[in-house]
Amino acid sequence: SIFTAERVEGWGQVNQWDGVKCSGFLNKSGLHEQSQMQYVGLNTPDKEYYVGIDTKSIMHPQTILCYEMNGEPLPMNQGAPLRLIIPVKYGIKNLKRIGSISFSDQRPRDYWAELGYDYYSGL
Fold it and tell me: Which residue in 21, 30, 80, 94 is a FRET match for 68, CA 20 to 30 A apart?
C-alpha cells in the first residue's frame, strides 16, 4: 500500500493506493530487457494524455500499478481499471487509465513538459 495526502485550497485527503510494484510487474512479464532502457512512456487509451518518466523512477520500490483505492476497486474518475502511482514524482506524472507503456532510450513525449513544466517533475 502507498498512502498519499492531497491538499487543495485548505482541505486535505489521505488516500490508500494498492496494486503491484511496477518493477515486479516488468520483471515477471518478461520485460526485463526493455526496463534497462532510459525512459518509459505511458499513454491513456485515447492517447490524449501522456507522460514520460525516467526508468529509475518507474523501477523505484514505491512505484505501483494501482487497481485499488481506499480498499475498493479503483473508481473510473481515478483511472480504473489501472493507473500509475509514483510517489517520487509530482501528481502530474501519476497517469490515470493506462492504455499503453513503451520503453525507449530517447525521452518520450510528456504532456506537461510540452507546456513548459519540468520534464522530470520530481523530488
Answer: 30
- 52/102 Cα distance (integer angstroms): 9
Backbone Cα Rg of the chain: 14
- 55 in Cβ contact with 105 (< 8 Å): no
Identify which of 50, 47, 120 has the alpha carbon closest to the alpha carbon of residue 84. Answer: 50
Backbone phi, then psi, for 76, in 5-degree steps? -55, -40
* Angstrom distance (rounded) from CA 63 to CA 89: 10
At a CB cut-off of 8 Å and minimum separation 6, what does 41 contact?
50, 51, 52, 53, 100, 101, 102, 103, 104, 108, 109
Nearest to 47 by CA among 106, 99, 112, 115: 99
pLDDT tens sequence across 11-62 = 567 889 999 999 999 989 998 889 899 999 999 999 999 999 999 999 999 9
